[in-house]
Automatic annotation (TrEMBL):
Residues 51-129 form the GRAM domain. InterPro entries: GEM-like, GRAM, PH-like_dom_sf. Belongs to the GEM family. Gene3D superfamilies: Pleckstrin-homology domain (PH domain)/Phosphotyrosine-binding domain (PTB). This is GEM-like protein 8. Transmembrane segments: none annotated.
Length: 171
């Protein structure tokens, strides 16, 4: 009984740390909350993460969504909050909220930041932690052409890493 309580305590602690990590990465807590509300509305509107994945990334015939996780994608402009989709044929990321850019002509454009990596183009998946703060964990996806994508701020880091490894190993 004590072992079960300790295990439950570790899971709760890991989940709380995941939420704190996720919120701390955001430059603005109010923007993060707005993004999450937008995402929940989309989940309800489309009927779940599988249908959102289908609509955003045009699944191939036979492609099956294994898992989805809230996280951040590291970019040169800073971390972008969104959903990481892990399927049998691809790993894909879509931002929670549209990103606003200005064209060379001064026009504003809004688009969701999207990345899609076919599983057959993935070389490996690495897990890393911050040396000075081991509770901060990262997942690196390296492609066959040695380009890397860094994901962080997972609500459930262990689950995401497990499914990413499974996706790579099924290829």
């Amino acid at each position: 009984m004590i072992a079960m309580i300790r295990k439950l305590g570790r899971k709760a602690d890991s989940f709380v740390n995941g939420i704190l990590d996720h919120v701390k990465l955001s430059p603005n807590v109010a923007e993060t909350v707005k993004g999450k509300l937008w995402l929940v509305a989309k989940l309800v509107q489309f009927g779940g993460s599988g249908k959102i994945f289908q609509k955003l990334f045009n699944l191939r015939q036979g492609d099956k969504l294994l898992s989805s996780s809230h996280c951040y994608l590291s970019t040169t402009a800073g971390p972008i909050a969104g959903l990481l989709f892990i399927s049998t044929n691809a790993v894909a990321f879509c931002s929670d909220r549209p990103i606003i850019i200005t064209s060379p002509h001064g026009e504003l454009g809004r688009f969701n930041y999207k990345v899609m990596i076919p599983v057959k183009k993935m070389k490996r998946v690495n897990q890393t932690e911050n040396v000075s703060n081991p509770s901060k964990k990262y997942i690196q996806v390296v492609t066959v052409d040695d380009f890397d994508f860094w994901f962080m701020g997972f609500l459930n880091y262990g689950k995401a890493f497990k499914f990413l490894q499974k996706g790579v190993s099924e290829d």
